[in-house]
Amino acid sequence: MNKYDNFETLAVRIQTENSHNREHSAPIYMTSSFVFEDAEQARALFADEIAGNIYTRFSNPNSSEFIEKVCAMEGAEDGFAVASGMSAMFTSMAAFLKNGDHLLVCRSVFGSTHQIVSQIFPRWGIQHTYVDIDQPENWEKHIQPNTKMIFLETPSNPSLDLIDLEWVGKLAAKHNLILNVDNCFATPYLQTPIKWGAHLVTHSATKFMDGQGRAIGGIIVGSKELIKEVRFFSRHTGPCLSPFNSWILSKSLETLAVRMDRHCENALKLAQWLETHPEVEKVKYPFLPSHPQFDLAKKQMRQGGALVTFYVKGGVEKGRRFLDNLKMMSFSANLGDTRTIATHPASTTHSKLSDEERAQVGILPGLIRISVGLEHIDDIIKDVEQALK
Ligand SMILES: *Cc1c(COP(=O)(O)O)cnc(C)c1O
């Protein structure tokens, strides 16, 4: 396994081999292909008898370094890096599913994941059932003889409810299903689903992994056996991550632990402050003792994460006014940046849903989601305070 035991050390010390220049920081390998030593080596590479680079659609030293780091962080055997988070979600499902198969999907998953599951897969005869995060007792009865996979996110977006990973890991094992967890919100620094029985862990590396709003990327990690299927599928369908973005993301991971520590420290302070504010009806943050799953959060997460959700009194109108009043924070639908970002899902990302559909995933009219950044906490609170006035 790894030479290093600690997350911070492997994040900075896992590196591709030096070239003849003995560089300290990995160079970017901007090459589409690689040359063979001789006919025998070429034959062995194509026959998968030896490891090595052939063509950047298959592998590249930069993507390999990024993959090796994420595998070490997640406790996974192998992985494949792809061009976006959505490519990771799509590939990690499509590589395993065929006409006639069925998926169990958590209703609160990312919007585009919803579109893949409910609009694209049915064209190919792949069926699904949505299950609710707050009713785990109902999940088992929706498992069918043709169910192949469970797909979920925890904490959920934007209501920050949790799924008990140990429980769902056992459910997947009992029914011989592939458990696929989108671990984008928590990052491997806060939560490692494989430890609890997940078979695949997927990421939008665009969010906290890069964490600086620069690059789009994704990754799928899991057992050697499952990633072999993902690699076969990806090698021929071509979602590979570019060397440049691989390099950016691998570099970003060097600071993931320190960034997440500060994100979480700021988020907890903001959540605690919001709880005392008279204009705020309710605050949701996994590491607040008032969170209904506080004990579970402590069990499966190292810290509470960077997202804080709260409900302002006064519904949609007040929520919109809050956003218009912000002076420092960015108003964007994105998350996972050094800059604090505020979103009002009811009037933006989830505006196309009916009130009832929104309520099903916990999006009440006054819900504001904040992706807490790395500014000084006093400035973050100051901005929220004046916008709530
Ligand atoms: C952003 C996001 C995605 C999609 O990732 P992209 O890199 O934008 O393609 C998937 N899942 C979650 C939870 C996300 O936040």
Walk me through the topology.
Layout: H1 7-13, H2 39-46, H3 61-74, E1 78-82, H4 85-94, E2 102-106, H5 111-120, E3 127-131, E4 147-153, H6 165-174, E5 178-182, H7 187-190, E6 200-204, E7 218-222, H8 224-237, H9 243-253, H10 256-275, E8 280-284, H11 294-300, E9 307-312, H12 315-325, E10 330-331, E11 341-343, H13 355-360, E12 367-371, H14 377-388
Parallel strand pairs: 2-3, 2-4, 4-5, 5-6, 10-11
Antiparallel strand pairs: 1-7, 6-7, 8-9, 9-12, 11-12
Helix pairs in contact: 3-9, 12-14
The chain binds pyridoxal-5'-phosphate.
The CATH architecture designation of the largest domain is: 3-Layer(aba) Sandwich
The number of helical elements comes to 14
Strand content bin: 5-15%
Mean pLDDT: 95
Q: Helical amount among residues, as a percent range?
A: 25-40%
Distance between the termini: 54 Å
What is the general shape? globular
Structural class: alpha/beta
The CATH H-level superfamily of the largest domain is Type I PLP-dependent aspartate aminotransferase-like (Major domain)
Give structural attributes:
389 residues, alpha/beta, Aspartate Aminotransferase, domain 2, Aspartate Aminotransferase, domain 1, 7-stranded mixed beta sheet, 5-stranded mixed beta sheet, 15% strand, binds pyridoxal-5'-phosphate
3D architecture notes:
With 389 residues, this protein is α/β, with parallel strands linked by helices. It folds into two domains: 7-253, Aspartate Aminotransferase, domain 2, CATH 3.40.640.10; 256-388, Aspartate Aminotransferase, domain 1. Helix content is 37%, strand content 15%. It is built from 14 helices and twelve strands. It has helices at 7-13, 39-46, 61-74, 85-94, 111-120, 165-174, 187-190, 224-237, 243-253, 256-275, 294-300, 315-325, 355-360, 377-388, and strands spanning 78-82, 102-106, 127-131, 147-153, 178-182, 200-204, 218-222, 280-284, 307-312, 330-331, 341-343, 367-371. Strands 1-7-6-5-4-2-3 form a seven-stranded mixed β-sheet, with helices on both faces. Strands 8-9-12-11-10 form a five-stranded mixed β-sheet. Helix 12 (315-325) crosses helix 14 (377-388). It is globular and about 75 Å long. The mean pLDDT is 95. The protein binds pyridoxal-5'-phosphate. Residues 84-86, 89, 110, 153, 182, 184-185, 204, 206-207, 216, 218 line the site of pyridoxal-5'-phosphate (PLP).
